[in-house]
Amino acid sequence: MFELVISDEKTMDLRFLALILKKEVAQCKGICVCDVFADRNRIVAAVPEKFEQYFLARVREEVANFIAVEHKYRYFLNNLPMPILDDFNKSAFCSALAVFDKETDKKYCLEHLKFFDEINIDSAIAFCMPLLFERWNEIIELVKSNFVELSLSGGAVEMMKFLIRSSGVESSRIVVEKNLGCRIRNESGDVLFDFDEENESRLIHALVCLLPKEVVVVGKNTFRIDEVFDDRIRVVDENKIDLVK
Questions:
Q1: N or C: which end of the chain has fewer CB within 10 A?
Q2: Start-end of CATH 3.30.420 domains in the chain
């Protein structure tokens, strides 16, 4: 069996990446687990050696996408001053900035991401991809120079919506359910995110990254997501969720 370990700093949530890779591993008749080891989030996968090259190619693709979106989002959230926006709008705005033109960052990551049986994502970024931070800092400076004026005029929200619209559509339909927290499914019924608590900031970040054509909210819409996806939301009765088409 070929074994691969992917790890990242504890602040980076690897569960969605693990969900994607678990599907790939299942097709290869392997095993994949997500855990915490030595204070780092970790994905450990093993596939038969005959699938090694295929699996490595898929891992490169998904890790590059993870860096281009999730690390970029976290960097903006930590380094872009947004004193006028609340946590929900900060998350939405940084998510929109992260997904916009993500293909350029993803291509750069693919060109510089080198590994064999272990990937330390944060170390790979720091030592192999220095131009990422230069690009991200340029975006931060550009936004900072106009942010106060944009926020006071309401232009920050409009800019955020423009960035999301310009990023296209990657998911046809996403279903949002409220349980003890919040659950997000794709139209096939697969659980993509399952939050223990209702967290509007995490919810809007997940939705922006999924770039859905339609967001179906099951039951009463108590979320603020219509502030961002106002023209893409449909609310259905919780007793009729099986009829969602």
A1: C
A2: 169-243
Sign of CA dihedral 211, 85, 65, 112: positive
Rounded to 5 degrees, φ, ψ at 232 are -120, 5
The predicted-structure confidence for 151-188, as pLDDT tens digits, reads as follows: 666 677 788 888 898 888 888 899 998 766 788 988 88
* Range of lowest pLDDT (14-18, 86-90, 170-174, 217-221): 217-221
Listed in sequence order, the residues at least 6 apart from 15 whose beta carbon sits closer than 8 Å to its beta carbon are 34, 193
Q: Domain 169-243, what fold?
A: Nucleotidyltransferase; domain 5 (3.30.420)
Spatial distance between the Cα atoms of 32 and 56, rounded to a whole number of angstroms: 14
Give the Cα separation of 141 and 122 in Å (integer): 23
Q: Residues 20-32: what's their mean pLDDT?
A: 94
3-state secondary structure of 195: strand
